[in-house]
Every structure is written in structure tokens, then in C-alpha cells.
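Proteins fold. Shown next:

***
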Amino acid sequence: QVPFVESGGGLVQAGGSLRLSCAASGRPSRVTAMGWYRQVPGKQRERVGFISARGTPTYTDAVKGRFTISRDNTKNTVDLQMNSLKPEDTAVYYCNTALGSVPWGQGTQVTVSS
């Protein structure tokens, strides 16, 4: 059983928005910094941002100003709001700890058409 399950992906036109959600499959033993990652076939998985245990987010330059990470520690969820989507945002999106330290889930596909 993977620790986190991603959902919310889909097909959207450039300029559109999607909201991804990451849910813990069990009850985490402690609150930890969480990251959102994405991977394009043939390329290395990259982290697009992470959020501290207390809720402070940090983003990579490619998504800064367009993506927002939030968390609800009472529900053990971490969301990724994606606005002004671009075709280059097309990827499979994953959540994991900020260090990518637990087994990866299946991710959720995001496809942005031009």
C-alpha cells in the first residue's frame, strides 16, 4: 500500500485550471513537509514545489505565480491548485514527502492542450 494517492488530473486547454489532491492512505504518524512532483516520459521526475509541516509553500520558478500548494492537516490532504496552465505543464503529477522518501503512487495525468 502506497502512502499517498493522487487525484484530480485531466485534460484542460492552455490557460485553464485544475486542482489536484493528495490523500494519505493511512493515518500518518507525524506531519511532515510534502511535495508535488511531475514527470514527463523520458525525463527525470522534478519537484514543482513543497509545503512545510506548518503550511509554508515553496515553488520552482517554472510554476511560481501559477501554482499554489495548500494542506489540511486535519484531513491529511495536500492540494495543488494549478492556474494559467501551459502545454509544458503536461505530465504525470505525484505527491510524496518533500524529500521523496516513501514509495511512489500511480500519480495523476495532467494534459494541457494548446
Remarks:
- The radius of gyration is 13 Å.
- The chain is about 0% helix and 50% strand.
- The beta strands are 4-7, 10-13, 18-24, 34-39, 46-51, 57-59, 67-72, 77-82, 91-97, 108-113.
- The longest strand covers residues 18-24.
